[in-house]
UniProtKB/TrEMBL annotation:
Residues 8-45 form the F-box domain. Residues 88-368 form the F-box associated beta-propeller type domain. It comes from Nicotiana alata (Winged tobacco). The lineage of its organism: Eukaryota, Viridiplantae, Streptophyta, Embryophyta, Tracheophyta. This is Class S F-box protein. Transmembrane segments: none annotated. It holds the Pfam family FBA_1.
Amino acid sequence: MVDGIMKELPEDLVIYVILMLPVKSLLRLKSSCITFCNIIKSSTFINLHLNRTTNGKDELILFKRSFKQEEPNLHKNVLSFLLSEDTFNLKPISPDVEIPHLTNTNASVFHQLIGPCNGLIALTDSLTTILFNPTTRIYRLIPPCPFGTPPGFRRSISGIGFGFDSIANDYKFVRISEVYKDPCEKDMKVEVFDMCTDTWRELHGQQLPMAFWTPCSEIIYNCAFHWFATADDVVILCFDMCAEKFYNMETPGTCHWFDGKCYGLVILYKSLTLICYPDPMSTDPTEDLMDIWIMKEYGKKESWIKKCSIGPLPIESPLAVWKDDLLLFQTKSGYLIAYDLNSDEVKEFNSHGFPTSLRVIVYKESLTPIPRNGDGTVVQLF
């Protein structure tokens, strides 16, 4: 009956109407009739839904934190799905879920959330990686990299990246690692995982600076993935997902290695933004201000503009930008706070976890499917 009525309506009109619906309603419509199902699962509709006009009210927060367990050195890793009723009020939209597969030892403070990329997010502890759609709650494990380490050598993974190759229409993961026997003699290795073939491969001949990790230091922007690295000084190491080429970008002239600062990368006002903040291990980081630098023209050092200095704030690290001008941080005590760049107002949320374990991704609802494993096995549901 429903199918018959729907077939009498112009498809463009149907698409225009249902594009306004939330994903939860769209998933219900899929099961109501074949016509709705075919429209909603089509790549055309998924892309239209992904790129539809939205505003700050459509932004949701994926909040990861860890809680220490009674067993020594063990933690429970939890994802919370949050929205805001007003500027400084967060509420859950569904029950928390415990993250499977990732480490639950003290190493959980090094978990990374990467994305979103077309609505998809990667969760990783460097050895294990999960690709996840926070809207549909569907995920799959990325197969472990098969390339081993020669006897007597050790491998240290210094960077994980995730992004979309728009030319090959393929999602990719890139892994940077150091293989060494003697700390003074290191060889950089780069491996790429292609979702379309479900395989890892090596990239040879890569001469790279030493990548290093801090919270909020890895980001997708302008079809490239970005890490911090050290050459003669602090640089931003970039990987073009389409060309599979690395390049370096210089940081502002005031940023130097061993200058008592830590660094974070965010997108502020649609531009790549560098946050220089006091090292939380310093004697009194609350004495120092935090500098916000915006790159007005991507890739050009001379286009770095210092937007402002804020603080002092007793923070552990930045986490994300929310609603265009709210900076989210984790405090040294493990609480989530927001700083309003317009009013200088600071708000502490009732959202907390084990200190240094907090991670935040700001995302919008997406129907983007998780590519299936190469053997055709079904992806899993949180």
